[in-house]
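User: My instructor asked us to take a sequence, write out its structure as tokens, and then describe one feature of it. I'm not sure where to start. Here is the sequence I was given:
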Amino acid sequence: MRSLGTALVLAGFSVFASTATMADPLPKGAKPASISKISKAYTGKTDLWNSGCNGGIYFSPDGQARAWCKDSSNSFGAGTWSIDVQGNLCQNLSWYWPNDDQIGKSPSDSNCIAHIQDRWGQLWRSWPGSDDWWPVDQYSGLVRGYKFKAEVMATRSQLGF
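Assistant: Let's start with the prediction itself. The structure tokens for your sequence are:
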């Protein structure tokens, strides 16, 4: 079931394009974004995956990450997130789901989103395998708070956590 976790995370990455403004090539004058700038953009927010799975991933202030998709509502992702000095926000999730009378668990591959800052200070992000850069702004799908907390907690409870 390893592919479930990877598929859900990749679905989240791929659906972003449909929820945001137009993508651009690498902005001129781009430089690596600072850890603090990236952290400020994500900490305490949910990155919505509106198309494909209808869920998202929450980036808690303590480095924990939780993901959930309505289209696979009997499973959830739990793990960590971090930012490296190159401006990559990486998430390491394990996905949990019902597996007969047990709990299935599958770690997904580490997924990293690259970040840069343009010459005006605007933060941009690009997903693995893409040459497109998307502005991190009011249209980027990041919303304040843990949007799917009730759903994650209900799923945890159903699984016996």
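For the description part of your assignment, you could build on this observation: The first strand starts at residue 31 and ends at 32. Try explaining in your own words what that tells you about the chain.
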